[in-house]
Amino acid sequence: MKNLSLVVLTLWIAIQLTSCKEVKQEIVEQQEEAPPNIVFILSDDQAWTDYGFMGHDHIKTPNLDKLASESRTFTHGYVPTSLCSPSLASIITGVYPRHHMVLGNDRVLPGDDKKGKPAWTLPWRDKNYVPVIENFKKLNTLPKMLKQKGYLSFQTGKWWIGNYSNGGFDYGMTHGDPERGGRHGDYGLEIGRKGMDTLYNYIDLALEKKKPFFMWYAPFLPHSPHNPPDSLLQKYLTKAPTEYVAKYWAMCEWFDITCGELMDYIEKKGQTENTLFVYVCDNGWVQNENDGAYNPISKQSPYDYGLRTPIMYKWKGKITPKLDTLSLTSSLDMVPTVLALLGMDRPEELDGINVLDETEIKNREAVYGEIYNHDFNTIEDGLKYRMVMTNPYKLIVPDPKNRPNEKIQLYDIFKDPFEKVDLAGERPKVVDDLMKKIETSWSTEP
């Protein structure tokens, strides 16, 4: 009888140990499968050259330099268009402007009298933009896609499409009410410039609810007005050719400081290892030396000073850091790359690829772009340029209807990154081949 009792006791202990082991294993698996927090960091009006890690001689960006060293960093990244509203819409949807139809910043209809004033200052601007917003609300966005994984999504900073909820965000700073000055960010534009507390509160809310979060951090930085703290301005006044340039350089560092504050807060909350950081700039900027405006080779232009941006992906322990100076990437890749990291299916309408898939990035032959009028109506009336970027060539094709006096341009963007030497006349076959790629891209819709 004693032997039988001993056998029963031994079996019971074995069962309990096995059960305990299985429970522990299940907990470990659940922890491993917990989706990461996702933070999109978006610079606003900054040239691809204007970072320490990209080689600028004077601008200090220690926090973004550190992020670059810890990320899969692509130095030849591009946005599909060099204007903020359509660029941001492409980042959040993963599709070209011609697919989400946010072509420019302001919509002007035939017969609208601008009276020599910017369209955004006139009373009919808000009414004209309503159909753009209504169409956008029907589109799939990353916050909407993330809901199936239980994410809470937060909007801070610039946001052109009315209320934050129009993009699928659960919470946000931008009300988008025209009666209260809503156009491109309203209250959201205070983040970074007037502290980070609202953003921190969103993070705390997600942690309290034990939910993964998606954070859209798109501060109005280094965007004008260029009014940096005096302590930063003084650092650059003796280094810059003019005060206008010094102010812009100081704004770049101010933006970098806020990025450091954001990343430090996530570290303080113990979330760094469970957070995916993605960085991009919405469009470029070259500061004029003698006034506060930008040089026309940058913003709204088809040149790399308007389109090119470093793009970074950091997930500590999950993404191997690497500085990639050869692969071509696009902001359109951000959504499909995030979905792939989460093990989610890629919707057919997306125009980008998973850039962390070595086969996909190796097989990519080109990335594309398209630029429309700031004050737009239709694709046909507003299209200014189409571009294709390859290794090593970039082709710029002006629209024959809307830019009839401009010629096709070809540059070797790896040997000639500042696009000084137009090769179109001496390499007609390259021009023809790249023109066919553009036409194929436009005719092959998802």
Automatic annotation (TrEMBL):
<dbReference type="InterPro" id="IPR017850">
    <property type="entry name" value="Alkaline_phosphatase_core_sf"/>
</dbReference>
<dbReference type="InterPro" id="IPR050738">
    <property type="entry name" value="Sulfatase"/>
</dbReference>
<keyword id="KW-0378">Hydrolase</keyword>
<protein>
    <submittedName>
        <fullName>Sulfatase</fullName>
    </submittedName>
</protein>
<dbReference type="InterPro" id="IPR000917">
    <property type="entry name" value="Sulfatase_N"/>
</dbReference>
<dbReference type="Pfam" id="PF00884">
    <property type="entry name" value="Sulfatase"/>
</dbReference>
<keyword id="KW-0732">Signal</keyword>
<feature type="domain" description="Sulfatase N-terminal">
    <location>
        <begin position="36"/>
        <end position="344"/>
    </location>
</feature>
<keyword id="KW-0106">Calcium</keyword>
<keyword id="KW-0479">Metal-binding</keyword>
<comment type="similarity">
    <text>Belongs to the sulfatase family.</text>
</comment>
